[in-house]
Every structure is written in C-alpha cells, then in structure tokens.
Amino acid sequence: MFCHYVVQMTSITIIGAGSAAFSLALTRDLCATPGLWGSTVTLMDISPGRLEIAKTMVEQYRKEAGAELTIRGTTDRRAALKGADFVICCVKIGGYGPLEAERALAEKHGYYRGIGDRVSCYYGGVGAYHQLKFFLDLARDMEAVCPDALLIETANPVFEGATLLTRHTKIRTVGICHGHMGWKRLAEVLGLEEKRVSVQVAGLNHCVWLTRFTVDGRDAYPLIDRWIQEDAERFWASPEYRDAEFPWLIEQISPGAVDAYRLYGLFPIGDATRSASPWWHHTDLDEKRKWYGRDGGFDSETGWSAYLSKCRRAITDIEHAARAKDIPLLTRYPPGHSGEQHIPLIDAMINGRELILELNIPNRGAVPGIADDVVVEIPALVTAGGPQGVMVGTLPSRLMDNVILPRVLRMESIVDAFMAGDRTALVLQLMDDHRTGSFAQAQGMIDALLSQPWNTEAAAHYRAQR
Amino acid sequence: MFCHYVVQMTSITIIGAGSAAFSLALTRDLCATPGLWGSTVTLMDISPGRLEIAKTMVEQYRKEAGAELTIRGTTDRRAALKGADFVICCVKIGGYGPLEAERALAEKHGYYRGIGDRVSCYYGGVGAYHQLKFFLDLARDMEAVCPDALLIETANPVFEGATLLTRHTKIRTVGICHGHMGWKRLAEVLGLEEKRVSVQVAGLNHCVWLTRFTVDGRDAYPLIDRWIQEDAERFWASPEYRDAEFPWLIEQISPGAVDAYRLYGLFPIGDATRSASPWWHHTDLDEKRKWYGRDGGFDSETGWSAYLSKCRRAITDIEHAARAKDIPLLTRYPPGHSGEQHIPLIDAMINGRELILELNIPNRGAVPGIADDVVVEIPALVTAGGPQGVMVGTLPSRLMDNVILPRVLRMESIVDAFMAGDRTALVLQLMDDHRTGSFAQAQGMIDALLSQPWNTEAAAHYRAQR
C-alpha cells in the first residue's frame, strides 16, 4: 500500500463531529479512499460525551478497516484548526428543539409551520442568526490559525453561509450538500438504469434543477413527459407512493414536483421539490398532502416528526453499535463510499485526480443573470488547484424570475440583516410572506421570537433601529 | 439671432403629439431655446382631429413667440420618422378607458384598485402589453427608417420600456420622466430656498430616492429629521395638507413618504412616494387615507378621478385657446421653460452644452448590485456625445433588498413574459401579489382580463403554455 510511504498526507478537521451518523459516513469514505491514508482526522465537538462516542466509533471502524489514519479528538476549536488543510463544518447550533418551539410560536401568530416555512429548518431560527454567527466565528478563527485551509461548509443554510463567508472573510469556502442525488429516485421511477443515465443539476442550494438529463446520450426529458402523461396518476395511487414509510422518499416524484416542472420549465431535484416549491402548495396540511403524499412532505408536522424519529433511531443505533462491540462495525456498516462528496473533493485536490462534483461556489458567470459573488450549486471540475465551476448557461426565464432570483433576494436580505444587526430588516423580510396581513403582525412575530430565552444573543444583535 | 445662419438645425419627431398639453410644453421649451431654432418638428398622431388641433396650436405659439421652427404634421409614422434625429414617444395606447374597466374587473376578483395596483396605470394594462408592443414596433420602424436617431421614451412604463428597447433593439434609448422634481415640494415644506438647495435623486423610474440633499453645501437630511419630529404632525393637521385640492400635491410630504423614509433609509421622491410605497399602505381606502391624506393619494378611486378630471380640463382649455384665438396663446401660456428635460437634452447634444439631467439609462455600474443592462434613473452628464451616467454608489441595503431589487425582478418578469408571449408567466407574477389566495384566482383574473374586447391582440400574444 502506497500510504506507508507518506507520513502526513493531509489534515482534516471536522467541526461538529459529535453528529455520529455524519462522522461515520466520512470515516467510511476515508477508509475506502487509500489515497488519503496517512492523513490526520481531528474530530471537534463542544460536547465531550458525544465527541468521545464519535471518536471511539471512528477509531474502531478505522482499525477494523485497516485504514492508516490518525484520529484525534478535542473540544477546543482553535486547537482542532491548528495545521488543518481542510475544515468540514457540520454544526447545528442548539439542535432542533428551538426550531420546534419557534414553529409553535409562529403558528400562534398566523404562520403555519413557522416563518420561512418550508426552509425554516435550514435558516437555523430567526434571521438564521445562530448558524451564520457560528460560521463567521469559525472563519475568523481559521483566518488566525489556518488561513490557507479550505472550509467545506455542509451545515445549513449552505447558500447564505457560503455566500456570507465568501464575501466577508478571507477563507476559501466550498458548500456541499447531497440533495442533487435526488435524480436517482427520478430515474428509478422512470425505470432507467442509473449507469445509462447522465445528468446535470444546477441552481442554488436546496433549489437545484435538472438542467440536463440523457439516457445513452439522448435527451430523456421526453421520458419524464411520457411518464407524467401515462403513468404518474397510477403511480400516485400505488402503495409505493401512498404508503411510503418516509415522506422524503416520494417528494422527488410527487404531484408537487411535477407541478413545479410544469410551472418553471425544469424538473426540481432533491430538496428543491420542497424548498423551492410554490407557497400555494403549503397553505395547510390538506394542501401539502395533495401535492406531497400522505404526510404532506418532509416539512409537514407529520413528515418532520418522522424525520426526527428516524434521526434519533439512527444515532441510537450507531452509538449502541460503537459501545456494544459485539458485532464488528464493518459488518453493520459495510465499507464503501457513502455518496457524500467531502472525501472525494479532498482526494481530488490532494492527489490531483480530475473529478466532476456538485459544489456550492461563487457563480462567476456560470448562470447568467446571477451576480458573480452569489454562491450557486453547480457541477464543478475539481483538480489539485481546487474547484472550477462549469458554465451552466441560461436557465428558463420563468424559473429565474419566480424562483431563483427571488431566492437570491431572500439570501441578500438575510445576509444584509445579519451583517447590519437590523431588526427592521427582519420585519421587512416577513412582510414579503403571503401570510402577513399587517406590519404589526410581522413586528410582533419577530419580537416574540427574539424574546425567547435561546435568542438572547440574537436579540442583542438585531437591535431595533430607526 | 444666430438661428438665421442655420438652415436645418436638427429634426425632432413627436410620436403621440395629439396630447396637446405635452406638445405645448415641448413647444414652449423649443421657443425658449434659440439654440435649437432652425429645427424641424414633426408632430405625429394616429388621430387626424387631435393632430390638427395640436399642429394649429404649436404653429400659432411658435409664430407668436417668433421662433424659427418648421412645424409638420402627419398621421403616417414611417413618414414622421424619416430624417429624424430625435424621436420623442409619449403614446398611451387606448387611453385610460381600458385601465378603468380593468380595475373594476380586478376588484371583482379580489384586487382592490386593480392588479399592480399602485402602478397599474403605468403598466398599460395586463402584462403592459399594449405599451411594450407599441414601443417595440416603433423601434423596429426606427431601425429601418432612422437607425441613428435617439429615442426619448417618455411614455410609461419607462422602466420596462427603456430596458426592453435597450436589450432587444439597436435603437439608442433614453427614458425621461419629471417625477424627480418632487424634491422641490419637500424643500418648500421645509422652508428652504430652492437655489440654496442641491440634490441628487437616483433609483428606478417611479422609484427614485433622495441620495444627496444639501443646503449651502451642508447635509440637509437632519432638517428632514427635525421637521418629522417637530413639525410634521402639525403640518398634517393643517388645511394645506388636509384640504389639498389635488392628492399628488401632498404625497411628497405625507405620512406615507415619511414611513417609507423610516423603513428604507432614504426619502422617496415624486412618484416613488406612491409607486414604491409598501403594499400595506394600500390595503383599502381607509388605509390609503391614513398615509396619503384625504384622497388616499393619486391612485385611489377619488385621487385618480380628480387626476382624470384635471387632465380633461387642461386639454379642453388648450384646445379652446387654440381654436378661439381671442387671446394670444403667449398670454395664456407665457414663454419660459416647462421643466421637462426633453428639449434641454436635445439642446445639450446638438449644441455641445454640458448639462446634468435626470435620465433613464442602462446602469453600467452606477448603482452596485443592479445588472449593467437594467435601465436606472440617475443623474447623467449630457454632452454632444450623449448622456453619461454619474456613478451613484451603494444604496442602503434595506432599500435595495425590499424595494429596488424586487422592482427590478418585477420588470424582468414583465419583459420576459412579454418577449415569450407567456400567459403562465403573467399568472406567476400575480401569485406574488399579497392579495392572491390561490393559483385559480390568479389564473381566473388573467384569463378575464385577456378576454376583454380591447385585449384580443394581447390574448393571442399571451398564449396558454404548458
């Protein structure tokens, strides 16, 4: 194995490594990538307990896989960043508790499922404060400790976060999400063999669209059209759709996704089937069910509960497996690539492999009509020199005018309000919500959110201004 | 007089010259600008009757003023364009009748005062079809007949029209409006002598903001702040405000304008006090009255009626004066500059005078954050070489995110829907209206508008699309 010749390959720091499922996925990828053996992986989390569990699990998996990796753990962020070449951020400040409480509060003010509804979970609370503040602090630490490291931003909101960091810090940032893989589900339902299919997916994070779709080199959009016309109704009446265990398994091929395709001209992919869907699909649970199946989609009251339960189960399983040691981890979680792009990105950069990945990077002309410094999610060529965006070309005007550009504008509002600490800007954002009937309603909503105990710091940040 | 040495100074064609008040204003300006004497003015209108009245009046005024101008009249557009150096477009297709009928229809569908409400009069009906179609046809004729002429677009919507023509034709276009003069009303109420005041106003047409405001070189914004704090309430209770004969005389210094200043950080000027004001100022007549005085502003049911009556009276007066010939026109309408910028623009270009005017021209970096090919309303230096925009600089982020950029996006939607003839794009535009509760409501509204007899051509243009 060539790794033996290399003492120090590269140094990867995972911030928020206590999320066991994600750390396990990255470890599997590292073990399946001998080109990166010899590297040091530093796990960092503020919770000593969760960090210990993650470290034990990662170390055991590595040992079972025979992968040459040095695993370290620390609760000290600056120590974790020291010497890092790559920093992977997967932090969710405060967990999901505050989100649920804020949603309940918002419903009292007339906002079903919370403000920002379909994407509120990604904003990380009012004004996205907690997440953006964390990202900025982390980047400031990196500027001091490892200014040349690449920040791989995988915590939400990726769009706001990566754009903010690109504009306001010196740290090179790449955003990574896995939502673009949703095309596989579409191909499956259409009965297409994955290896014969070639796709391109582009847009903004959680708002990506199928810009190219071919089978054996021939345009496969007509197959979607035929499926809609001939098979969709039957599929939506089938148990596979109607009784799907998890709502996120069927969003990709739901009536809502098909409607978005009709309205905007390209098929929505992954999270876009929900996050970028029109507001009138989401006015209440009945309407959500009409478009997104029994549970009304991932973000509905039942869909989101199912997700949280599944997350909890997955974590319990992993933690149990790590502690029990009765069965090898490799047996429970067989070696192989997880599908996440973080390790392939690092592998390509370190070992000079040329790879096309789906990355969140500044637009710089890839999609005409979007400013250069707005972070888009597009195919990018990764080499030893880092990612270079692929010129996507013009998107349909209905999609640009009604989805992409309004979403860019929302990002600008969120980032501007955050940078200025401007509470009125938050209220004005909410005035744009269709459910807002008066300025007093929006103002009351923002004030109520900012008066919650977990928002004390945010309330001080978003000062009332003239 | 030096004009005697010049046989042909320049050739100015006025399209829609049958609007007597506007043709009179331009004639007054021409008579007060000896540097342009020797020019030919071609009046064009499709109505022979209105054209004849306008021509008689212009010719008589010219004669009384002793101005050396050749006045021609024709109902043939191509003939009118032949040899033109400047083409002034001031056409309102179909007059205001259809607008009123469309507003009444819209109210039945749940849209108080029509779709696009505060600016619907400028859009020229559903999708702005009639006006944009006319502009494009005119520019195509110019490309064939007088490709080097400058088109001075003064018909609404100036923003959509000038951007459309800049992008999709070879004709050089400049938009002109007089709304930016609203600062004079503000200065007056503040008790400031006009000649001591210096201002800059910038933004988009009907959406301009006071970017610089000084008295004797010192920042005068604090005077606005003091007026708001100490004098505004008393002023709004005074007969000057409460009993103002015309609503447009008080919009500039209304509670609505002050609220917009508070919300967005710059004082709105002219039409912006209405067109760019927030939707929640306009939910019903009571709310409009709260913000814009007794009549609820220019666009309310009573305000707009007052405007139409005043227009009709002005036209009747001018036509009567032109026919009666009992009193010299010069006595009724004394010589002097009207305040319109069309003739000063031509004068500066023909005679090489350097002049700062407020023009609608492509942005090209004047306001950061707006694309280069979007037409902005900004101060511009005019010389023999034509207008050159003055770099305005960054506008406040609350103003950009909540007013300017959403208005740019609306322009893009209107222009894209028009160029594509896309009915669904019109429906999607309306889905963005706070009063829209469902897709069916918006679709029904658009279909109802396009089924009106005066919209037959528009209905054929905006085909239903998948």
Major pleated sheet of chain A: 6 strands, parallel
The residue-averaged pLDDT of chain A reads 93
Query: Helix- and strand-based class of chain A?
Result: alpha/beta
Shape of chain A: globular
CATH architecture of the largest domain in chain A: Alpha-Beta Complex
- Radius of gyration of chain A using CA atoms only: 22 Å
- Helix percent band of chain A: 40-55%
Cα-to-Cα separation, first versus last residue of chain A: 65 Å
With helices defined by DSSP (H or I, 4 residues minimum), what is the helix count of chain A? Answer: 20
* Largest interface, counted by CB within 8 Å of the partner chain's CB: A-B, 30 and 30 residues
Parts with pLDDT < 50 across at least 5 consecutive residues of chain A: 1-7
Say what oligomer this is: homodimer
Summary of the model, kept short:
The first copy, chain A, is built from 20 helices and 13 strands. Chain A is of the alpha/beta class and 466 residues long.
In words, what does this structure look like?
Two copies of one chain form a homodimer. With about 475 residues, the first copy, chain A, is of the alpha/beta class. The first copy, chain A, has three domains: about 10-175 and about 315-350, AglA-like glucosidase (LDH C-terminal domain-like, Alpha-Beta Complex), CATH 3.90.1820; about 180-300, no CATH class; about 400-460, no CATH class. Chain A has 20 helices and 13 strands. A six-stranded parallel beta sheet of chain A has the order 3-2-1-4-5-6, sandwiched between helices. In chain A, strands 7, 8, 9 and 10 form a four-stranded antiparallel beta sheet that branches. In chain A, helix 6 (about 130-145) packs across helix 7 (about 160-170) and helix 17 runs antiparallel to helix 18 (about 425-430). The radius of gyration of chain A is 22 Å and the shape is globular. Chain A starts with 10 loop residues before the first strand and ends in a 5-residue tail after the last helix. At the A-B interface, helix 17 and helix 18 of A face helix 18 and helix 19 of B.
